[in-house]
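Sync notes, pocket subgroup
Present: LS, DG
LS reminded everyone that the earlier model was apo-only. Rerun requested with calcium ion included. Inputs:
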Amino acid sequence: MNRKTLFMIIGLMVMALAVVGVGYALWFEDLKIHGDVTTGELDLDFSGPYIYDYFETCDRDPDTALPDCPLKFDTVNCEALFEEGVMGTQVGGNVETDLTDPDWLGITVTGAYPSYTCQVTFDIHNAGTVPVHLFAWYHEDPTMPFPPMPLECASNINGPYTEVEDGVNIAQLHNDGAVWCRVKIHFTNADNLLENATYRFQYHFRACQWNEADMCTDFEYPYPAQ
Ligand SMILES: [Ca+2]
Ligand SMILES: [Ca+2]
Ligand SMILES: [Ca+2]
């Protein structure tokens, strides 16, 4: 056998082995990971509101200890609605009530005079899925000084309520979590308010994603245009 024939035989044997190899069954299985990530929704809403109004010496609620004085209420009125625009002509404001996303609470008091109090109680609840820290700031019309209308909050509608300071964390709210708050509109003779005047106040709430609370307290919210 010459050298050329030997190489041909070796080549044929290699090819034959390759062909035989294809005949082996390959046992295998693939494992995979596919990722879809949807993010949560940050959504805080008001609910309520509940109005309780009274004078220092009487109210119109038969369930309270104060004697009832319905006649004095004929000329003073307090309303609270989930509407923008109740504070005059706010820029961007409107009068549409959106009860699926109540982010505005408009309070209107007419005919007020010293000793009258309108207390508006409401809750702020986490209607979304993202946990948040909640803060609030008080703003008043700088051209019409007004005694600050205290904002008080509690973890339960029955209290105890504590006054909220500007920029202080009111609550951590997780999904379906709620905090109850109330604003008291009240002034006395010593406040020297004018007759037939319009005084405006504003509370601004901000809820920040739970991990960004540190960045939630540094902002300015301009007073609405007159
Ligand atoms: Ca909302
Ligand atoms: Ca009463
Ligand atoms: Ca909503």
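DG: DSSP finds one helix and ten strands in the chain.
LS: The helical segments are 3-22.
Action: DG to write up.
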